[in-house]
Amino acid sequence: MPVTAQQREKKQSTKASSTKARRPATRPATRRAPKSKAQLERERLANLRQIQQTSKELNQTQEKKKASLGQLNVIKVKLTEKKQVIQGISTQLRGIESNVQQTAQQVLQTQKTLRELKAEYARLLYTASKTANGFNRLMFLFASDSFNQLALRLRYIRQYTEERQRQAARIMGTQQQLHQQLTGLTKQQQRKSSLLNSQLSENKNLLTLKTKEDQMVQQLSQQEQGLRQELEQRRRAVVQLDNLIAQRVREEIARAARAARLAARRQAELAAARRSAAARRPAGNASSASTRSDSDNDNASATAAPESDVPETAAEAAADRRAVRIALTPESALLSSSFSGNRGRLPWPVSRGFISQRFGRHPHPVLKNVTVENRGIDIQTGAGEAVRSCFDGKVLTIANIAGMNTIVMIQHGDFFTVYAKLKSVNVREGQRVSAKEVIGIVATDGEGTSEVQFQVWHNSSNLNPQNWLGSR
Known about the structure:
472 residues
């Protein structure tokens, strides 16, 4: 009988140890996605808001029954936005599909683990049932050969009971994990179904917009003569605006060069006056030299002629005109450096709108084999929208140009910004303005298009404004 008890103890110990060894470990699969779900959702909502805003501007331009380039620009922007929405939905669908596959694999693995745990637990219960009554348990203990063996058998019974309890807890935990995975899988499939419906709807909207764009291009093609006249008027207006900007920049460069030269001349005259006064003083009056020198400097500064009254030679005037950069004072140099440091972060000249025509040369949207050139960017917005200064500066010029309405030119050190196509202005020449200060109201043309042209210049160099504006 003792030998039989020892064999049964070894056999049961072997089963208990094999239960621990066979316990599978479930590791969640790593998920790799280029963008998070929250980020994709934010981009989708931003695109939808932009589409709503663009729709308002399309409704504004469509109040005029005649097809216009403004309407075509709005439709093109809406097409781009719709494509971005569809692309975002496709990205989300790919991510959800990957998550569904991973979750399904995890569900299968968890179900397998649960089956193994239940089978092992059944074996434990079967083994425990053989010693379920107290008599068999006492016989197992009293059949020990020694007190040490009795203690080991008693500890084994306790460990076996604890292992059975732990096995039951593992089964419960695995069942909860399986429930969570199945719930998550259901939610992902529902989200996938919703996105598929959204994608189908957006594809229909895209097809409708594409059809509308083709119809608009066809209508505009029938107005080729009017479009060419409009293009010629715009070219003449652009030439006048370019000439005005170039003239004002040259004048400002010459003015700054003259001011710098006169400032240097005054400094030289003051230095010469100090040296002359010092040479005339007796050696014994050295104690009051500083006071008299300061008085002489004050008198010299007070009697110095203003810039406009100082005679200028022809050579000096020619040198001023040959200057190609604005001579900066310490104050204007700080302003210019600050403007340059905000490249890519400047506020937009209007609070809402989209770029309807970009910087540089590009094909005409309707006329074939016709190229248009834009010195800035055209921003289409709503009627009556306020136009704002993009940075601190001084109003250099306000002028009216046929085809460009009212233009405002603001100086920021050796940088200039130009705002054209304004209906009215709220500032005057020489006035200091701050960033986001309203300088005027956008004009609306006869076709119902409200558009402002924005340009950026550095001295005489024309820059791409889109590289200077921040994100919306």
